[in-house]
């Protein structure tokens, strides 16, 4: 989509804006910007534009250089007027009247009037949020007489802006019916991508062939990917974004691919054997990760602290590694020392919504409940979510097992204490040399009764996965 | 690619840097930045990073936050040091020694030293170019004590920076052997996309299905698209970037899709009948556009002014419209009045290289020879290239015929004079209602003898196109 009306009823956006106004109180109006497209290499050649997620949440409108003002009972959408040249280059596009109806706002004004409006109303009566990109942030900041800390380096907001951030977080954490409809659409396309990927895989192909097979059904549904796909035979490279390795007989292929459905994210990881058959060692580790994931999902229900789910999933991994003789010792003690974090190095998951890591533009403010902060222990420090679950939240559950050479090298800082006292049995570990990296990830909705796996249709039982690999007609090298 | 060494020999980049130094003279050093990745919605979720094209041209290195300094005989690459955390998240990546050898530079320094280096050397001894994105431009400007006009609003450079721009333009306009190798790779993948698109097309699909089929082979080669694909049954919407129309029996499908091969662009347009058979009216107009394109290509050789090729291609269209009774009058006179521009509304093409519109980050400085400027006449004013051709240049040749409702509406400003004196025969035009838009585009290298069509393997003769449509096994709705 490049320029468009909301795909859902105006009422859903109106309801969100009223809920925001009531959370924010009548003292200040909320002003949320949509952002601008960014060039790849010159101004006319842009990356696909994606509006800011807060703006999308409140309007559903896919437009650049716009802002929504939520002022008590009144909503004003500021946007550019139609350019007559657009009719030649872009064809007929919806006009102001259609956006007024489609977004359910009271008034539409020219975005050029926003600066005067802000001056007149008094910038300090407006709460707003920094854009995720520095260009827009700089422009917003200079208009509003503010400076914001850069995202990614911690987020430091004025009190008013902080109140808006907290109100948005409160709303967006608990998905309404319209949000759920979009998430289900993203989940369906994401599942289809994984089915296509398994079917297309055969030794002899390159990772890029499998990636192309997976992204095709997403594009065919007129969606995009929600993040840079990971499709690799080196699953131990956690943020691998190259696709040039040959897929060899005996490799595991790890694919972390998700669809963006009108701005809403899917996020699924599956790991499958390139030749359609797990080796005994691969199967052992795969079943361990799967058991960890299933145990975690079984715990999900309102009131449960996500950090406890993370630790329980890690405990299953720790116990499994003890059972295989890779770790020695008492599981409680191993967990305390973070031994499982040598192999399950990242957090169990994150909230998911419009953003794949939802609201990460606000740093940990969305992922961590007030008063909670990141732990310092390796492994646990990477956990992105530490809240008590509530019905309507959506989270990912994505444990993994990885052998990262840099981490596990003999003499490495991290493993030294475990080598020193014999906790780590490297001979036992060496038997699993054909398991570089496994991750199994689903998107899960918290319900009043427990949970619902939104992406359950992507096979993950080992037999089901094996049965699918290489079944596509075009799965040739 | 996300982080990588040059894919071509160091010597080719070294030769370019020496040629740049010799063009620029010894007075000033050239400093060219690589740029930074930009977030989609939060800092960790970025658009695929693409280095600045000038930087890529001089180094071949695919790295963020880097700069190349070309100082007479000496080349220094400034880049970030390896982050130990990268080993965990990104796996082993090439280090400084490998970039030193791969890029053939004399020295590598920490990018953090650049600011001190600039201070010490004196900013006014460095020529540099504004980045295409405002974030990076702002950072560069403040470091160098400069302000640049925004790209897209005309480019206003200091004398020294202008000299660097002209030196880069002089080099990049004439493709060397390494450049040609990359362009040929881009062309091959682009051709494959069009073959796949034709084969996958059948009435009942959506435009997005065809787009997905076309982009798959590009992704499978571990490439990306060079620009936002246009795949539409509304070819008259020149910059259409939506893909949600149903492909109907009787529609023409226009696809303008190109591959990016390690930063180098392909750019091809084909138009084919959705049902595999041009209607008589579609075939007439298709053959007219093809005749225009072939006439233009036949003219290409060193010394020829591209604007004259544009006008000759327009003349073929004008004559054809007279033959069909759509335009009445003397062709010379019609051309003078720009009558053909009602239907062939854009320019014949542009230079192509690293950027699909090569060096458009420098405005018209690359496309227009010194002293030449845009015409004011509708149609001609959109021409992006007005230089005398030289061997080694690569250009696109892309005439078209479009019925744009907003332009052709009775009483529209543009058509009124042609309606008033009976030049435009709307009854004759009405017979071609099933031809909304046709464009045929190839990438052509200027050679000493004439020209070579780099993308000739994409079928364009009507019979060849018809024979391919709908032949893919998976071309079902
Ligand atoms: Mn995830
Ligand atoms: Mn073109």
From TrEMBL, chains A, B:
GO annotation terms (biological process): proteolysis
Molecular function as annotated in GO: manganese ion binding; metalloaminopeptidase activity
Aminopeptidase P N-terminal domain span: 8-137
Keywords: Aminopeptidase, Hydrolase, Manganese, Metal-binding, Metalloprotease, Protease
EC annotation from Swiss-Prot or TrEMBL: 3.4.11.9
SMART domains: AMP_N (SM01011)
Cofactor: Mn(2+)
Catalytic activity line of the entry: Release of any N-terminal amino acid, including proline, that is linked to proline, even from a dipeptide or tripeptide
Alphabetized InterPro entries for the sequence: Aminopep_P_N, Creatin/AminoP/Spt16_N, Creatinase/aminopeptidase-like, Pept_M24, Peptidase_M24B_aminopep-P_CS, X-Pro_dipept-like
Family to which the UniProt record says this protein belongs: Belongs to the peptidase M24B family.
UniProt GO cellular component terms: cytosol
Domain of life: Bacteria
PANTHER family: XAA-PRO AMINOPEPTIDASE 3
Name of the protein described by the UniProt record: Xaa-Pro aminopeptidase
Natural source organism: Plesiocystis pacifica SIR-1
